[in-house]
Amino acid sequence: MDTLHGGPVVVGIDGSEPALRAVRWAAVEAGRRGVGLRLVAVVGWTGVTPVGVAPLGAEYERQALLRLAEHAVVEAADVARGVDGTVAVDRQVRDGSAAVVLVEESEHAALLVVGNRGRGGFAGLLLGSVGVDVAARAACPVVVVRGDVLSRGPVVVGVDAEHSDAALGLAFEEAARYGAALVAVHAWSETTLDPFLVPFLDWDAIRADEEAVVGQALAPWTAKFPEVEVRPVVVRDNAAGALVRAAQGAVLVVAGTRGRGALRGALLGSVSQALLHHAPCPVAVVRPEGQR
């Protein structure tokens, strides 16, 4: 499996400073990948005049929102060119629901990037609504740019026995691009065990089993990326907390998600959601390959 999708790096734009931070991060990423950068602003126009605003006509309102969106993508393009003038920049303003449009854009993207919060204006890229929806449903990996974007630390990835292969693929690719080490975190806890059995368990044997899980998950990727320094971390801890702590000083933290369920929270899972809201660095969420 190769998580490197074809197409450009797509960024959701809403005119906010977090969106411009996402553009700066994405411009560097597009340059590293050797692909274009596509800036997309979504005008979620409904034709309803907000309370307290004099009715100026539906078409006038729509045109005003379109001008705001055009200004936002022009500003974002200038920011991107200031980061890397060699990256080809494409600007798009589209009507519709921000989440729906960005998921559509992800079908042809190498990566979809959003800020960790927005102004809730013409695009409404506010994490907790659009950002989480997109991370749960996109056809390509999604990066939510938050925290420290200037770190030169490692790439951090969560490892489990069933749902981390796609995340490992992206994490190894990013570590290779950045020339960074990869910290592979596997957290396990006795909370899922029968409490009556806990005092009698052989914790050394359990830890050895958990380390074997990590070794098996990493083996195909270390063979494919021998240049990447890998630092396995096996801890008896809550997975979300362990990853948030490991991400201190990281350049990126990568999480897989089950990609199942009808509800947004079920699609993402508690670990991915915790990272999106609390990680100290940019967060990449990767769905299983067969469920994109």
TrEMBL record:
Coiled coil: none annotated. InterPro entries: Rossmann-like_a/b/a_fold (IPR014729), Universal_stress_UspA (IPR006015), UspA (IPR006016). It holds the Pfam family Usp. Residues 8-146, 154-287 form the UspA domain. Belongs to the universal stress protein A family. This is Nucleotide-binding universal stress protein, UspA family.
